[in-house]
TrEMBL record:
InterPro entries: GFO_IDH_MocA-like_dom. This is GFO/IDH/MocA-like oxidoreductase domain-containing protein. PANTHER family: GFO_IDH_MOCA-LIKE OXIDOREDUCTASE N-TERMINAL DOMAIN-CONTAINING PROTEIN (PTHR46368:SF10), PTHR46368. Gene3D superfamilies: Dihydrodipicolinate Reductase, domain 2. Belongs to the Gfo/Idh/MocA family.
């Protein structure tokens, strides 16, 4: 998103890329509910593709794209359930994002957000390397070093630490929300249902693009 200071553009968000995958074993590919059309018909798209799309939406402050176009050559099993797929997302102001999700490739959980003056890179987007910490790197106004022999400045590495694993924090937050409704008359939190709905809207648009021969599908708000 462009931000204007003193009449000129100081930052513009450009490409966003996410990839989440893991190499499923034969038992998973034959018997897991995520490969059964009558149990979880969206397959990989509805499973780890959800996290790819959620990561993209997070990077754009949950602004829905204008349209999506599924990538050609998705992989399906014999029952027609998606095992690997991807798509490109487009916004009216020029932002572009691409994702790929797969049950058939090595464990990868990457998110890269690139702007005119910086890059954010997360390499353990869904499940952190360690239960109580999560790293990410930031490159700001990076260029080639003298004679193009390196980078200057180097990307900076950061680690977010927590007292509890992320699953514990999720349960803790859920309990806090429920307790507020029960004990303090607080209205149900609208943030998470809203984000969930937007994510599913994009998931459905990607599936529609795949089903319609990889045509562009407008995203309903």
């Amino acid at each position: 998103r462009d931000r204007e200071d003193n009449g000129y553009i100081t930052f513009k968000l450009l490409p966003i890329n996410t990839m989440v995958s893991f190499l499923a074993n034969e038992d998973f590919l034959q018997n897991d509910i995520r490969v059964k059309p009558d149990l979880d018909g969206l397959g990989v798209l509805g499973d780890i593709g959800w996290y790819c799309i959620r990561g993209i939406l997070w990077a754009v402050d949950y602004e829905l794209p204008k349209n999506v176009v599924a990538l050609h050559h998705p992989v399906k099993n014999q029952a027609g359930v998606l095992l690997a797929c991807g798509a490109s997302l487009y916004w009216a102001d020029g932002k572009v994002a691409t994702f790929h999700c797969s049950f058939l490739t090595n464990l990868t959980m990457d998110l890269t957000v690139v702007g005119t003056n910086g890059t954010i890179h997360v390499t353990d987007l869904v499940i952190p390397y360690e239960e109580k910490s999560a790293p990410f790197s930031v490159a700001s106004k990076t260029n080639f070093a003298e004679l193009s022999t390196g980078w200057d400045p180097h990307p900076s590495k950061h680690v977010v630490t927590t007292d509890l694993p992320q699953e514990g924090l999720m349960v803790q937050e859920f309990c806090r929300l429920v307790q507020g409704i029960r004990d303090a008359g607080v209205k149900p939190e609208g943030k998470w249902p809203g984000i969930t709905r937007k994510t599913q809207i994009v998931v459905d648009a990607v599936k529609a693009s795949i089903d319609n021969g990889f045509e562009s599908v407008d995203v309903a708000s």
